[in-house]
Amino acid sequence: MIRIALVLVLLVACAPRGQITLDPQAAHVGEVRQIFIGTTRAIDPETGQFGSERADTPSFARFDVAVPPDRQAGEITWPPRRGLPDPKTDFITTAAVLHRDARAFRADLADALTALPRGGRDAVIFVHGFNTNFAEGTYRIAQLAHDLKMPGVTVHYSWPSAGNPLGYAFDRDSALFARDGLEALITEVASAGANRIFLVAHSMGSGLTMEALRQVAIRGDKRMLSHLGGVILISPDIDVDVFRAQAAAMGKLPQPFVIFGSDRDRMLTLSAGLTGRAHRLGNLKNIAELADLNVTYLDVTAYASGAGHFPLGDSPALIALMAGIGAVDAAFAAEQRGRTGLLPGIVLTVQGATEIILTPVTALAGEIQQ
């Protein structure tokens, strides 16, 4: 156990931690993404920002984030802790609005939705993973929304992760604590007028998302479920048996239901070791374990590098591929033969589950980038 913890620290401790840097002038340089936020983090009295402690009631905000023009897809560059930020290369917050209550949040979100074409008033809710502070989760979804050309409005659920590589147990408890907050955020987004809501979750946030959907299904809230346009789990840190139990409680899974996984995910290998299991959902060895579920499993091992825990966010080639196929729900709703044309690779279908082992194609990547 101690050895696993030490390896985990070595993997993540050397990277600089994210922080919010406010500069309204950066809006004139980068592309600004409005990030609507629901959070169950308490405000740290020392910094005045959302920290790692848990709050009994959710807070709502909007952070406008300027994505710098001089960067590679998948890259997040933090402003220096000392010295002036460079809006050409650094992610910078141009405005930060803390809403006084849920009603003010809904009104702000409704204005953003109304500004969209009537058929495109959709929302993407991103749920971050383990060892993530407030700034890191907020800037990550800004990066994803920009690089993947996400349509609609962008919403972030920031649950109280400790932001500490040794805080795995704390984060697992916080993820359970945060289930009601995510459900409340989904309700607010639907009430603001979103036609469809897409849930995108990473790592431990995937377990939180599944737990929230499970309790919604058990409660029989068909209205909320009807708003779901699809679910995407990226490197989900979930025990496979637990996932199957969650899916069974939900009954019919929202469609499309997509899982991104990789055999090279070192973080999930460590997580599996901590739980005494061979693997997690995000590094599944055999798609047959999900055979009775209507899911699409995208094996992105060929695109993984480093820790391999977030290739959809980190790999420029995979980002180019996914951004090039257009609307995610349209691509994954296609029949198997259509999927093959959109996503180059080997397709394996076992009853209801479909596995696509993505294969990098240099010519295709070049075509997309042109």
| Shape category | globular
Number of domains: 2
How far do the termini sit from each other? 48 Å
| Rg of Cα set | 19 Å
Summing up helix and strand content along with how strands pair, one would put the structural category as alpha/beta
Helix-strand topology string = HEEEHEHEHHEHHEHEHEHHHHEEH
Give me the number of helical elements: 14
Largest sheet: 11 strands, mixed
> Approximately how much helix is present in the residues?
25-40%
Query: What share of the residues does DSSP label as strand, in percent?
Result: 15-25%
Strand order of the largest sheet: 3-2-1-5-4-6-7-8-9-11-10
Number of beta-strand segments = 11
Descriptive key words:
370 residues; alpha/beta; 2 domains; 11-stranded mixed sheet
Compact summary:
The protein has 14 helices and 11 strands. The protein has about 375 residues and is of the alpha/beta class. Mean pLDDT is about 85; it is low at about 1-15, about 335-340 and about 360-370.
Can you characterise this structure?
The chain has helices at residues 2-12, 102-114, 134-147, 168-177, 179-191, 204-219, 222-226, 240-250, 266-275, 311-314, 316-324, 328-332, 336-342, 362-369, and strands spanning 31-43, 50-67, 92-99, 122-127, 153-158, 196-202, 228-234, 257-261, 296-299, 345-350, 353-358. It has 370 residues and is of the alpha/beta class. The protein has two domains: 1-227, no CATH class; 252-370, no CATH class. The longest helix is centred in the middle third of the chain and has 16 residues, at 204-219. It starts with a helix and ends with a helix. Mean pLDDT is 86; it is low at 1-14, 334-340 and 362-370.
